[in-house]
Design goal:
single chain; 155 residues; alpha/beta; 4-stranded mixed beta sheet; two-stranded antiparallel ribbon; 19% strand; globular
């Protein structure tokens, strides 16, 4: 985790989204002085404010916004292929609308805990440090986004 922030208020209110946008567009300073930019953001579409989240993703005021929803299947890949989530007034899918990504939470937890457990028997300074790569969840060690979408099991 790089940072944590809580925004209080109704997600349907513009002030909450403005505060989040301001935070996500600000670089995060690394311990070594480098400035890290947020490369992608995923917002859970589940819940009672679906249209407010779709509107935020549609506005694209942040880098690579994605609408996500937890997959019901335990064998779902960490990040599934997107599906259209917007419907026009005639009941047809809007091809230029919001795309919804299914997230395999079970696979994500397996991947994350497997990465954390690597080298735990060694002293901290002897543990291998995997390269940092941008993923849908932020900057995490491990495979890139294409590996997660393909359903391949991470090493």
């Amino acid at each position: 985790m790089l940072d944590y922030a809580a925004f209080y208020g109704d997600p349907a209110e513009e002030e909450v989204w403005t505060a989040l946008t301001d935070l996500l567009n600000r670089p995060i300073e690394h311990d070594n002085g480098a400035l890290l930019q947020v490369l992608a953001t995923a917002t859970d579409l589940g819940g009672h404010r679906t249209e407010a989240i779709k509107s935020s993703v549609r506005d694209r005021r942040i880098a690579r916004p994605m609408a996500i929803k937890g997959a019901s299947a335990n064998i779902a890949p960490v990040l599934g292929k997107p599906t259209m989530a917007d419907v026009d007034w005639r009941g047809r899918y809007d091809k230029r609308g919001v795309m919804l990504y299914q997230v395999g939470t079970v696979a994500a937890k397996h991947w994350f805990y497997a990465r954390l457990s690597r080298g735990t028997e060694k002293e901290p300074e002897q543990r291998p440090l995997p390269p940092l790569q941008p993923t849908a969840a932020g900057i995490l060690p491990g495979p890139d986004l294409r590996d997660l979408q393909s359903g391949q099991k991470p090493l």
